[in-house]
Amino acid sequence: MNTLHHGYWTFFAVRKKKYVGWFVFGSILPDIVYYVMFIYLSVTRNAFQVVDDPDPMHSLFRLIHDLFEHPVVFVLRQAGHSLFIWGIAIVIILLWKGRRLTPWSALAYGWLGHVVIDLLTHVEDAVPVFYPISSFTIRGPISYWDDDYHAGVFSLVNTTLIILSLIYLFVKKWRKKRAFTKSS
Ligand SMILES: [Zn+2]
Q1: Is the whole-model pTM more than 0.85?
Q2: pLDDT higher than threshold 90 for residue 181
Q3: How far is the CA of 79 from the centre of ligand 1 (A)?
Q4: Cα dihedral sign for 137, 161, 17, 24?
Q5: How far from 74 is each of 22, 27, 46, 68, CA to CA, in Å?
Q6: 137 burial type by CB count under 10 A (0-12 exposed, 13-18 middle, 19+ buried)
Q7: Are 118 and 1 in contact (CB under 8 A)?
Q8: 53: CA distance to ligand 1 center in Å?
Q9: What is the rounded CA–CA span in Å between residue 140 and residue 150?
Q10: Per-domain residue ranges for the chain?
């Protein structure tokens, strides 16, 4: 799933819990490397100087292609989406902080949500589940971006659910506000 949607759905799921910001941060954590390295590659290649570029779209596609081939992105993408690496992290956090909810465990649970959702929404580009100790991959039932694997249906359903959930949140907030102004 794309990074923004990971963040939104995590926010929606945990909005009444403590440490919402840490959950959401964890849910976008595995993808942050793309944005950092995108900016890095853009700067090192002077990609923002589109004026001199005869075909800026082509350059952008090449940049995105090279981004995913870049060794730093390749390793961190696999590590960030690995249940094995996540497992090590949660064991350390539990031993260190105990079982209660802390910013660290909130971050880890947000991260886990990301990994599980990606397991279900990537097919051809699925990452080894237990990287780096095994190359076993699970092909998800749908791909959030690949039209060969129902990306259109996924996008339609996801967008509809986001709109409905936003309406739900706004109506609830509005009702609460009205009840508050009535009572005061
Ligand atoms: Zn991801």
Answers
A1: yes
A2: no
A3: 11
A4: positive
A5: 25, 19, 22, 6
A6: middle
A7: yes
A8: 31
A9: 11
A10: 3-149
In the chain, the amino acid numbered 154 is F
Dihedral-angle region of residue 139 (phi above 0 means left; psi in -120 to 50 means alpha; beta otherwise)? beta
Contact by Cβ (8 Å): 30, 24: no
Can you give the C-alpha Rg of the chain in angstroms?
20
Distance (angstroms) between ligand 1 centre and the Cα of 179 equals 40
Query: Is-contact 127 118, C-beta < 8 A?
Result: yes
Q: What are phi and psi of 126, to 5 degrees?
A: -65, 145
24-37: pLDDT as tens digits:
999 999 999 999 99
Which tokens hold the place of 104?
């660290």
